[in-house]
Amino acid sequence: MKVFVLIMLLMTGGLLAYGVKDFPGWSNPNAPASTHVSPRYIQAAYTKTHTPNIVTAVLADYRGYDTLGETVVIFTAGMGVILMLRKKRRNKGKDNV
């Protein structure tokens, strides 16, 4: 079973490495993200969102649902940690009495 898992892991890693060679280079000005997406955000961010900061416009307006999902995940994790620590303290106090 371990050999099968190792073979599958190596095959998956090989496929990922093979796919990476087709990515555009870092900071390539001719990459699709640099020629199509970024200019559209830079030129139309203020007129479409009325937000002077481009980063805020992208995070709050263009990617609002995605950002909301990330915020919910972080909030849920934080609440879980708080509840675990609170329960532990409550149990500590009862054991000492």
Unreliable residue stretches: none
Described by the principal axes of the CA atoms, the overall outline is flat
Helix and strand element order: HHHH
Distance between the termini: 52 Å
Description:
The structure is a single chain. With 97 residues, this protein is mainly alpha-helical. Among the domains are: 30 residues, no CATH class; 33 residues. It is 81% helix and 0% strand. It contains 4 helices and no strands. Helix 2 crosses helix 3. The longest helix has 33 residues. It is flat and about 60 Å long. The mean pLDDT is 85.
Which tags fit this structure?
97 residues; single chain; 81% helix
Condensed summary:
The chain has four helices and no strands. By secondary structure, it is mainly α.
Write the layout of secondary structure elements.
Blueprint lengths: L1 H19 L11 H18 L4 H9 L1 H33 L1
Helix pairs in contact: 2-3, 3-4
